[in-house]
Specification:
This protein is α+β, with helices and mostly antiparallel strands. 32% of the residues lie in helices and 17% in strands. Helix 2 (23-34) packs antiparallel against helix 4. It is globular.
């Protein structure tokens, strides 16, 4: 599949089947995230891989955004090593951006391997950090549910293919 077809086929899956994600596929997804570029190559991102019922239930108690996925990646970044825009009179911390790049790589890798994902941020990050005993300098950026879509209910939203025209999306100056 060429890249634009891959990008178009990726959607937010809101119902996963019980089929487990194969370990070799999970390793390939994690490798895609590991090699993703980060600001100044600081590599501040850490991914918590939730597969045990105990870990999954801990997260399910904090958000409805798990949709029965049996593998959930909690994408975090270390604020002590993420790049900061200190020389520009700006409070920008590239950690969220780096986590987004890593998550995008993993979501597209998953789709390329025949899996579906849901990228979510509808939760209290501090609650998730406490639940998993993360140090204060580790910020939870998002979660990525990974798995096989439920064949009857796990397809794309009816709004999936609705896109604004290119002339509204990109402006040449």
């Amino acid at each position: 599949m060429d890249f634009i077809d891959l990008a178009k086929s990726r959607y937010s899956c809101r119902k996963f089947s019980e089929r487990a994600v194969e370990s070799e596929k999970l390793e390939a997804i994690l490798e895609a995230g590991r090699v993703a570029p980060t600001a100044t190559n600081a590599q501040p991102v850490t991914v918590l891989v939730l597969k045990s019922e105990e870990a999954l239930n801990k997260l399910r108690a904090l958000t409805r955004m798990t949709y029965n996925a049996n593998t959930i990646l909690v994408v975090c970044y270390n604020t002590e090593i993420s790049w900061k825009a200190k020389n520009y009179n700006d409070d920008f911390d590239a950690g969220d951006m780096d986590a987004s790049i890593v998550t995008t790589h993993m979501a597209l890798a998953a789709k390329n391997l025949g899996l579906d994902t849901l990228w979510a941020r509808a939760f209290n990050a501090a609650d998730v950090a406490r639940a998993f005993d993360l140090p204060e300098n580790v910020h939870v950026a998002c979660i990525l549910d990974v798995g096989y879509a439920d064949e009857e209910q796990g397809g794309p939203s009816p709004r999936h293919e609705a896109r604004k025209p290119m002339a509204e999306f990109a402006k040449e100056l």
